[in-house]
């Protein structure tokens, strides 16, 4: 089974890139004015605006920005590699751009409130994105369940390894 990216998905990706780029340009040009406006008009968000502003300050620190970009690329590369292996196991041929599009849709969907590990929400968006690519619902469910398990399992194993490596003590945080 060979998957190509539908034209509508490409258009949405281009639109998303334009929106994100526009947001970042506006942020850098009108930083203080935007923050003041949002604090006045959207006072109910309270501290969230300030936290967003603090998080976006990474763009002013080249060293931190390069580290963040580097680790983000590694994370996406590893996630894409895992997805590629799972797709191969299900005999699904998909391009690198298709894998990126597939991983992006469930990732964006996880901003919705959900259970720990995004169980349910991630699968819904993964199945939906695979169905957009023309994969049957049953195969999409199988692929998304296996891939999500692998993604969570690898993260848990790495977390446990680093807990012991760094000598963290859970009793200390009770």
Structural account:
- The chain has 174 residues and is mainly alpha-helical.
- Helix content is 74%, strand content 2%.
- The protein has helices at residues 7-29, 31-41, 47-56, 62-89, 96-109, 121-132, 137-166; strands at 2-3, 93-94.
- It is globular.
- Strands 1-2 form a two-stranded parallel ribbon.
- The model has no long low-confidence stretch (mean pLDDT 81).
- It has 7 helices and 2 strands.
Could you give a short description of this structure?
It contains 7 helices and 2 strands, in the order βααααβααα. The protein has helices at residues 7-29, 31-41, 47-56, 62-89, 96-109, 121-132, 137-166; strands spanning 2-3, 93-94.
Topology:
Layout: E1 2-3, H1 7-29, H2 31-41, H3 47-56, H4 62-89, E2 93-94, H5 96-109, H6 121-132, H7 137-166
Following the backbone from N to C, one meets helices and strands in this order, namely EHHHHEHHH
Q: What's the average pLDDT?
A: 81
Strand percentage: under 5%
Rg, rounded, reads 19 Å
Low-confidence runs of at least 5 consecutive residues: none
Strand-pairing-aware structural class? mainly alpha
Widest β-sheet, arrangement of strands: 1-2
CA-CA gap between termini: 51 Å
Shape: globular
């Amino acid at each position: 089974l060979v998957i190509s990216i539908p034209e509508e998905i490409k258009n949405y990706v281009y639109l998303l890139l334009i929106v994100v780029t526009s947001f970042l340009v506006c942020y850098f040009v009108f930083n203080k004015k935007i923050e003041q406006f949002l604090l006045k008009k959207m006072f109910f968000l309270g501290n969230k605006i300030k936290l967003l502003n603090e998080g976006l300050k990474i763009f002013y620190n080249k060293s931190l920005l390069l580290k963040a970009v580097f680790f983000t690329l590694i994370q996406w590369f590893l996630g894409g590699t895992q997805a590629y292996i799972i797709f191969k196991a299900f005999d699904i041929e998909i391009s690198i751009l298709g894998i990126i599009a597939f991983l992006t849709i469930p990732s964006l969907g996880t901003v919705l409130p959900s259970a720990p590990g995004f169980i349910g929400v991630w699968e819904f968006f993964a199945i939906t994105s695979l169905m957009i690519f023309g994969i049957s619902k049953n195969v999409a469910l199988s692929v998304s369940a296996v891939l999500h398990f692998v993604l969570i399992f690898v993260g848990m194993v790495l977390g446990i390894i680093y807990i012991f490596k760094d000598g963290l003590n859970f009793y200390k945080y009770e």
